[in-house]
Amino acid sequence: MEQNYFDFIICGGGASGLLLLKALREDNYFDNYSVLLIEKEVKNKNDRTWCFWESSSDTFDDLLTKKWSNAEFRSKGFKKNFDLAPLKYKMLRSSKFYKLIQSNHLKTKNTFHLQTEIKEIKTKKNETKVITEKGNFQSKRVFNSLYNPEPLLHQKKYPVLRQHFVGWFIKTKKPQFDPGKILFMDFDIPQEKETRFLYVLPIKTNYALVEYTLFSENLLENESYEKGIKSYLESKGIYDYIIEEREKGNIPMTCFPFDKFNSNSLLHIGTAGGWTKASTGFTFMNTIRNINSLIIFLKTKKKLNSFKIKNRFNFYDLLFLDVLSRYNSEGSKLFSRMFDKNPPLRIFRFLDGKTSLSEEIKIMASFNVNQKLWFVKAFLQRLF
Ligand SMILES: Cc1cc2nc3c(=O)[nH]c(=O)nc-3n(C[C@H](O)[C@H](O)[C@H](O)COP(=O)(O)OP(=O)(O)OC[C@H]3O[C@@H](n4cnc5c(N)ncnc54)[C@H](O)[C@@H]3O)c2cc1C
Fold first, then answer.
1. pLDDT at 169 (0 to 100)
2. CB of 328 closer than 6 A to ligand 1?
3. Same domain for 114 and 29
């Protein structure tokens, strides 16, 4: 590539990199801005199944594998079925998403794509240099989605849990699932002193994604997740099935301030930017929301490190993670109290950062006395 200066450089063409590219190329304001996207892989696989909820239809609706209007929450001795309206829970598989953005936006005017490995990103005051195997590139605005877990290991201030899971897409011989309803969380499985649950997304009566998921510190051996799925299916009388695909994930849940690595000319985005919802691991919708704000921000031409997305919901996440990491075996009870004492839609809106202060007080009031004390203790420890 002859050109080595670009108005924008996007490092990593996964979810956040491609969502940013799409947003830039769909806004006429940026028509004359050159954008370079650098990604090491050929992105065409179903390496992710993104699920999220939203009330409106959006541009990805045509690509969805499925959307649901009803959900269920379960834990030992407790069950709640609920209507998600006005929300829909949506499943988007990554290969369709990659294909859409590659065909609609990667070959447009002023857009450049380089498939190579990024070796280093060096940021100086007003310019950032991206060093790759195929040359070095500079910009006053570089967006980096290459996730580096290293800084998390050398600190204790912010607990780091992970949402880790193995999922199977299974086809059963007999109809076994209700395709109208997701099982959002089923904690009615051995917790093994951690926070463990099953997550079931039925696509047809005989076809579903079943995931064995943990919110905890340490990963398991692969066979433990698989055993968890198998015994869950057996507990529901499901023996006769074939596994069509497998999926594995390990998503950081932390309030570590990744934004401290931003500079005038470098902004971390996606998981690398701390855009993962710390209390749940959901990232996809957060990324869409943050990119909408980023596009407005870029028009102000302010320095990238003045782009801020923190609000009071980050503080709630911080307290929740403090409690969940300290009392990891109690996760099932914490979530159960929330779903028992609140209309589930309030919880979804809370997770989206859209509740009012009075609703947030109601959510906090859902916890029992002991649980409330844990939160008060976490709050005081964060204050002093
Ligand atoms: C299996 C799985 C399922 C998930 N499901 C959900 C879900 O249902 N809902 C939800 O909200 N979130 C989900 N997540 C979390 C999150 O939405 C995804 O991880 C999402 O892909 C994060 O986007 P990103 O841009 O930060 O990272 P990525 O999508 O991982 O993009 C980073 C890109 O950088 C590239 N890259 C890395 N290193 C280099 C290098 N040195 N040089 C060049 N390129 C490089 C990678 O190839 C990759 O394409 C899931 C995560 C996983 C792993």
1. 98
2. no
3. yes
**Ligand 1: centre distance to CA 41 (Å):** 12
Range of the domain at 172: 160-253
Question: Based on the domain organization, do 137 and 223 belong to the same domain?
Answer: no
Q: Is 17 in the pocket of ligand 1 (CB under 6 A)?
A: yes
Mean pLDDT estimate for the chain: 96
Maximum alpha-carbon separation in the chain: 65
The tens digit of pLDDT for each residue in 143-193 reads 999 999 999 999 999 999 999 999 999 999 999 999 999 999 999 999 999
